[in-house]
Design brief:
mainly alpha; elongated; two-stranded antiparallel sheet
Length: 105
């Protein structure tokens, strides 16, 4: 015969199972609960918990924007051994790879 348990009672049962250290199967056997019913209620409780999460609803009250202007372009600087090599930031990657391979040879 099925036993009705309220959502609050299921919350207590689920918490008790976690604290018990028992497997779900062992806990359900000990408390005469079907494992399928336990998993069903655990799923329902997780949906309820997810819908009442800690996220807070917000509202934008003022729109602002920030523009960043870069007048000075960044350079790529390589200092192998005693030499210093400065390249424009727009230097293609494949050229850099070829250059680095040549320097390491």
């Amino acid at each position: 015969m099925r036993k009705f348990r309220s959502p609050n009672h299921w919350q207590q049962i689920l918490a008790e199972q976690q604290k018990s250290g028992l497997t779900i199967s062992a806990f359900c056997r000990q408390h005469n609960i079907s494992t399928s019913g336990f998993y069903t209620q655990r799923q329902k409780q997780s949906v309820v918990t997810a819908s009442t999460s800690a996220f807070v609803s917000t509202k934008v009250t003022k729109q602002t924007s920030t523009e960043v202007h870069r007048d000075v372009k960044q350079r790529i600087v390589l200092e192998p051994s005693a030499a210093r090599l400065t390249l424009p930031a727009e230097t293609p990657a494949n050229y850099l790879i070829t250059l680095l391979n040549g320097l390491s040879a």
